[in-house]
Amino acid sequence: MQKRVEILTGVIILLTLFTLNKDGIAQNKKAEKDISNLLKTKSVVEAILVIESLESTTLKELVTLTEIPAPPFKEKLRAQKMTQLFEEAGADKIWIDSVGNVLALRQGKKHGKTVVLDAHLDTVFPEGTDVSVKHHGDTLYAPGISDDTRGLVVILTVLRALEKAKIETNTDLLFVASVGEEGLGDLRGVKHLVSKEGHRIKSWISVDGTSINEIATGALGSLRYKAIIKGPGGHSWGAFGLGNPHHAMAKALNYFADEGQKFTTEVGKTSFNVGRMGGGTSVNAIPFESWAEVDMRSENPTYLKKIDSVFKSSMNKGLREYNQHLLKGDVLTLTLTPIGFRPSGKTAETDPLVQRAKAAVNMLGGIPNLITESTNANIAIAKGTPAITIGAGGKSDHAHALSEWWMNEKGVDGIKLALMITLAETGIAK
After folding, report:
1. To 5 degrees, how large is the angle CA 354–CA 189–CA 72?
2. DSSP per-residue string spanning 260-317
3. Nearest to 166 by CA among 256, 68, 280, 43
4. Residues 7, 116: one domain?
5. How far is Cα 411 from Cα 409, in angstroms, rounded to an integer?
6. Does 313 lie in the same domain as 253?
7. pTM here?
8. For 180-214, what is each residue's pLDDT tens digit?
9. Nearest 5 degrees, angle CA 15-CA 430-CA 7?
10. Alpha-carbon distance 41 to 192, whole Å?
11. Which CATH number does the domain housing residue 13 bear?
């Protein structure tokens, strides 16, 4: 009973903070009312109590899931564990689709549009990485613990809270533990799901990152290629004069660096990067192949298309000039193979989903900050579906590094945030 009083008191305080904090922050009045009404609903108060009471379980599952490796394209073991946890949490239907996404459906009163709550299974770390969790004081260290294992735990706890508080939603709610968000995964899990289920999705809420203040409404688009230049290869002394793919690649990439820099300086925040290079067999052999992986990004679809054009024209120009000065042998050839595409776009600030998310952050005492990121929400946004990415709560740093860490500083707020936004989207059945 004491705990219930504490939580109810906390809700009242948060409602007060919401009133105080809204000065100077543009909020849609209906969104404010939606969130405020949620917090006056007995079952929602009960769900918040459940979230609080599950803190020890939430933290235990964070460690358990983090220590199950989920390297790129090898998320199967973690997917199996998520399937088990979704079953224990009480989802109506759970299955793994053909690309490896774990899907848990919680049926609503009305079977029409579906609200999606998503977090990704995979991490950036290769097979063999030590993913054991190390405790240093109040901080947990492990590769992938915040990006995005914490997100998985958030969606699990939201499902548990809905079940234990016996909340029936108006629309169906689909919990998604998706594959392929990182790197060369190229959002393959979400691309598959949206292509199959897009017409049924009302709104998409991704949980990625930790700060509850940051709401990603902009989709940072990207294009990725593997450039390969090939030639006959030969001995560095005996075959000297044959075309050298590494030399040609250096010339082509130098043109791209110069032209890309000019373009990005003119238009603003658009980026390009040569992330990996390779090829060749020995220091004393002319390589038969040189390859490079290139990443280009922009918030603006037009600029992304333009930097793509700059890349292709620069690479072809560099190889053409190199081939003109060959001493002997066949000309070198270039192939540009796409290895990734994430569309750009934006969910409008005026969209009810964004307004409700801002109101919910405000209610928790935060200051909402609309940002642009590259996440699973990109695909839904590009399809015209309202979509955002929200933080999972707590504090973290060093994502994508072996020294990645997460600390439970008001981590529970991230779960409450996901619950409130989700229920505002699904509605509560009368």
Report:
1. 115
2. HHHHHHHHSSEEEEEEEEE--S-TTEE-SEEEEEEEEEESSHHHHHHHHHHHHHHHHH
3. 43
4. yes
5. 5
6. yes
7. 0.88
8. 999 899 999 999 999 876 668 999 999 999 999 99
9. 30
10. 36
11. 3.40.630.10
